[in-house]
């Protein structure tokens, strides 16, 4: 007879935290949704593409923060696949579901920074099929469901017919946008445009190695300072609290190291409705109604709250919520001013930043969201 081994409490806590972070996000009933599945080629030549995805994530989020349908802000969910990496099992098509649909943007950022390039064989038809079949897509035809696949090898590679995969996607209301890393004509000749055409999407080409000029705005220093102050308003709780707070700080540091503008965009995104951390932060959890302080186990509360009375705990969380709202309002005002300044500077450098992944995603989603009744400020 085998004797069952006891899992140490610390190990169990880590397992719970990892599982919670990887768990798919449940949609909020009655709220419109924008679901983005990003399929990135992580073969050897795609380091520039991955860098663009890492540094431009928050700019894309800020763009969507202005979208509304019928006066309601949509819920943004992002999923991530990598393909074309020889370190992934050949029997699975060198494909990996990195992250199912989630609203946890820090987790998306963390996983983008963890991607490594290697190889490989890029099977576009197969990764599109995997995304269509394995992700939990909304059943509503009113919601925007979009796949973005980016790479630089022929779209025809692999045993899965890309035509069937793209047709299966659009049959389910999922638009497929293709982003070829190379010349426009080469992408057309290697069937990237055909894939988009089959699924009502847009075909775009980018220079994956292009780095947009860094534009420093007068508001940048204050936005960054306020973003750091914003972190002090988070009240970590439960098994995932420490991991969540640690991830928040780490993603601040990585964004700052990657590009100054990426960090400013990240801090701006932290002031939007899309940056919610209800799974580990009491302020967001209370706001979304997922936690009842009166019924919460004291052991799940942060140390500073454990000795408080029920009234003191409520007041403490409300104080943090008020502080956060005030800081976010300041960031939003400064961001509006910054956007105007950057727009003027971009005009002086005509064409700068128009041939990048973020520009492709923003252009396509704006067009496709507008067709679904969304309006952007």
Total strands: 8
**Stretches with pLDDT under 50, minimum 5 residues:** 1-23
Number of domains: 2
* Proportion in helices: 40-55%
Task: Say what the CATH topology of the largest domain is.
Answer: Rossmann fold
Q: Can you lay out the helices and strands and say which pair or pack?
A:
Elements: H1 9-22, E1 33-41, H2 47-64, E2 67-68, E3 75-83, E4 95-102, H3 105-114, H4 124-134, E5 144-151, H5 162-171, E6 175-181, H6 184-189, H7 192-198, E7 203-206, H8 220-231, H9 238-258, H10 260-269, H11 282-288, H12 303-306, H13 310-348, H14 357-371, E8 375-376
Parallel strand pairs: 1-3, 1-5, 5-6, 6-7
Antiparallel strand pairs: 2-8, 3-4
Structure summary:
With 377 residues, the chain is α/β, with parallel strands linked by helices.
